[in-house]
Amino acid sequence: MLIEKPVVTFLDELASSAPAPGGGSAAALGAAIGAALVSMVANLTVGKKQYVDVQEDIKRILARSEGLRHRCQDLLERDVAAYTEVSKVYKMPRDTEPEKAAREAAMQTALKNATAVPMELAEVCVQILNLCPESTQKGNKNAVSDAGVAALMAEAALRSAALNVLINVGSIKDEAFVKKERARLDGLLAGKAALKEEIVKDVEARL
Amino acid sequence: MLIEKPVVTFLDELASSAPAPGGGSAAALGAAIGAALVSMVANLTVGKKQYVDVQEDIKRILARSEGLRHRCQDLLERDVAAYTEVSKVYKMPRDTEPEKAAREAAMQTALKNATAVPMELAEVCVQILNLCPESTQKGNKNAVSDAGVAALMAEAALRSAALNVLINVGSIKDEAFVKKERARLDGLLAGKAALKEEIVKDVEARL
Questions:
Q1: CA nearest neighbour of B32 among B120, B128, B106, B114
Q2: What is the pLDDT of residues B55-114, one digit of tens each?
Q3: Is this complex scored with an ipTM above 0.90?
Q4: Segment 114-173 of chain B within 8 Å of chain A by CB
């Protein structure tokens, strides 16, 4: 598994011309970093007597952020698998008409699967971002900049996931599918850049 | 070294209440991901006959992006060291006046060092972001979304580094130092959110 590799090996493989990991896995790792920072802020708040009034809220945030982090880690692996499948289909023979048809059908299936992974990541990123205002407001004040970094990473990962959805749907011929997925993506993106800026502004006011 | 650890261990330690790694290392890793993606786009373009006209440009970009990635990897380690030093100083005794004075002097030195690391990271992030327009325009068209993810990650890392500079300078008493560092940071941030949006728009137009 990719997440079992050393960080430096992951980065070396990302930088290489190997088909995977690519931007999709990079986005998943960015999102996992964001979720991990929400968890860190919560872990620095749990059990602290200055924060006795928010213990239940913080524990709820921590359970959510850790769940989301593990989903990002899974999505990182699933993105590699989905992209490896697309790469395999690209290498299918296309000398005869039946071969061309088989390759095209396999490609459409592989592209739909490769779209589902960043779409799910985009949903997870929105959920991470939605945890950040409360993390900023209720979390340990000494870690408030970390809550801001969490929001910045989650939003960049959301936009990155969106680019990965868009590059895949660009080659999908099922127009109804494409229309539906684009609308779903637009819904996920709506207002999130503004939310991120609000969170960062709130963090800066507390520094 | 932190980057020798498995990705999942890095994320587990980031999520924990351990003083380091924190938001500074997270920002450095985000920037490294951005630089690695610029390298990936270049590596997918080098030696390809469709891109014969841009080979020299691409090789120059690759040399730059790999140099910047390795600086991010160094900064990730240096951030941990700087923050560990600050944590140590927090634990110095402060029972007597001489102890208080020694602790305060050590704190000011540690905070200035802990400011230098994210400031250098912010500079590196700007350089990564500045490589992205050319990577988008000249790199392998099949990897254009990856050039967009590179810009998103580099800009989020820049803003994250800025939050880490700001939280540190908030406790530094040398007003001239604080004023100078804030001005330097403002210079690095100026226009970069707009540049990132331009790059993403250009990427979306090429999808």
A1: B128
A2: 999 999 999 999 999 999 999 999 999 999 999 999 999 999 999 999 999 999 999 999
A3: yes
A4: 143-146, 148-150, 152-153, 155-157, 159-160, 163-164, 166-167, 170
